[in-house]
Amino acid sequence: MSSSPPRNRAAVVAALVSAVLAVAKLSVGVYTGSVSVIASGLDSTLDVLASGLNAWAIRAAIEPPDEHHRFGHGKLESLAALAQATFVGGSAVLVTLEAGGRWQSEATITHPHVALLTVALSTLVALALVIWQRREYARTGSMAVAADSAHYLSDVLSGIAVMAAVAASSFLGLGFIDPVVSLGVAALMLFTGLNLARKAIDTLLDPALPEVEVRLIEETLRGFKPPLLGWHGLRTRSDGVNRFVEVHLELDGDLSLRAANEVYGDVVAALGEALPGVDLSIHLDPADEPDPIVRR
User: Fold this and answer.
1) pLDDT of 149 higher than 50
2) Dist. CA 92–CA 47, nearest whole Å
3) CB within 8 Å of 223: residues ≥ 6 apart
4) In angstroms, what CA-CA distances link 50 with 61, 76, 78, 203?
């Protein structure tokens, strides 16, 4: 895994961008009377809170283990992602309420060109942020950065829908389109929130490492010859930041302690090279039989 600065930088940049977009869209939404632009602005406002929470969580998650948290603080990123899901769900409710009120009032959009220009620029900025965040996630593997990226992708999609709504309401006389699209934005936000919650909960439940990494571990172990006769009890998990591997090595029961320790060191070095940064828990067991066994 990468170090803290790139991970935290992604969250800080996202928070700053969200703040600018929120102010711009809310101001223009109120100025033009477009409920879909206001809805998008509310979403960006919650993005500021979510990204700020991510910045804290990322910094806290990479803190080393302490007396009360022996396995580190990696799950804080998943908790931050779960909080993001709550924020997104809350904003979806606010947008739905605003859309319902605007539908009943049948308010019209004024200065549609201003609304279109603002939303178009905001959408392009959000798209650029998503592309950058995807690259950061590829480098760091941060659950919080992935959650932010998924959220901003929904902003891009909703921005396109909002532009269509403003155009249809203002230039085609279809005033009902604006609140309808805002309801669609709310539905997209709710879907995004549920997806984030699902991924965060999965991480909190200690999922196994990806199959490709498990196969890499097995292939690395198969590369050893006696006195390593086999292994059993291979278990893997991830807390969203750190990776943990536990395995029992089967050695000749008559092997000296010094020789067994050498095998242990070689295995640790090999697995550490195959999966840099992995947290290893290796146990040495006497094999049930002296001949090589199936290495599973």
Assistant:
1) yes
2) 12
3) 270
4) 16, 13, 12, 18
